[in-house]
Amino acid sequence: MILIHNHPSATLQPSQADKVLTTKIADAAKIMDIKVNDHIIFTDTAFYSFRDEGLI
């Protein structure tokens, strides 16, 4: 599973809420034997990958 959402504000850094939600979804997915491979935040010009940053 790959989670994706946008930040219309153009801020690439994940908020604390983004981090908490990612952890909750990943934990819930494990129960169903599903792996969260990444969570990507994108703006008009760039993206942020939780996997690339070592958060997943």
TrEMBL record:
Occurrences of domain MPN (ranges):
1-56
Q: Which GO terms describe its molecular function?
A: metal ion binding; metallopeptidase activity
Q: Which Gene3D superfamilies match?
A: Cytidine Deaminase, domain 2
Tell me one GO biological process term.
proteolysis
Q: Which UniProt keywords apply?
A: Hydrolase, Metal-binding, Metalloprotease, Protease, Zinc
**Keyword Chloroplast set for record:** no
This chain belongs to which protein, by name? RadC-like JAB domain-containing protein
Which species?
A: Sphingobacterium alimentarium
